[in-house]
Amino acid sequence: MKKYIFIYLLTGICLIVGSCKKYLNVVPAEVVTQQDIFNNINTAQQAWAHLFACFGQNDLYNEFVNGNDPCLGACTDECKNHWENPSELIINEGAWSPTNNPLDQWGTYYQYVRAADIFLANIDNVPIPATQAAYYKTQIPLYKAEARFIRAWEYFQLFRTYGAVPLINTALTPNQALGSKIARNSVTDVVNYITSECDAISSILPLSYANDPSNEGRITQGAALALKARTLLYYASPLFNGNTMYASVKNSDGTQLFPQTYDNNKWLLAANAAKAVLDLGVYQLYQPDPANPVDNYARLLHVNTVKPSSL
Asked: H helices of the chain, where?
């Protein structure tokens, strides 16, 4: 009798354990996987749209967009945040540190780099209904160019904030990321990457969406060329052009991460890149008051001013 009771108990335990294992392995219905996103062109398009959320980080008006995020201009002499105890105060007082820096966006920048990597690795394999094939045949190349721009933009943010940073253009799994020690690329490598990406996508992007208001705000050829020009301007500046303060900053293998020799030609490269933007014939200086350059500048900063002639 005891033998049979033991067999019944053992059988019951096995059934319970088996059913529990199956029950616990069920993925909650509200969890959306990467495969789910890129199995449908509508959700894949949402992943593309989400990339645009990167814009606005540490911009001049960031304080007013994101609440307590620091306004980059207020960290310098450009402007002053008049609110009590703003996040910029710690920088104004020289009290910031490696563990307390309101401008530290390292993780955020790489999150968008990874999001762009994932999008670029999957968008070409998304199934598209036959009825929409013609539309997406023209849109997907634009989506990919815009994702590459956003990735280059995030690397520019990393470059201007940290200088030499790792170039990671493969979406690492969490286990790969945790188990990897990725060396920093040199400032020159980072600049060359950003500018080469801008060159590659500029011919794909449109000059303007002026005739298509529904797409206003999307990335244009001018944006790509302007990012290249801005990157090269930073590269030519004393911060990165022969700055001996960073002579000791090297990788463990001895690789010099910051250029130690001043190169005057970098200014020419920056000027030529800026000229390429002007030569598009799309942009001009903001001059609502052509006869008054002071008023033009004031209006550019959204400041009401009285014309000197009326004083």
From this structure: 2-24, 34-37, 41-51, 62-65, 89-92, 106-122, 133-162, 174-178, 187-202, 221-236, 265-278, 293-300
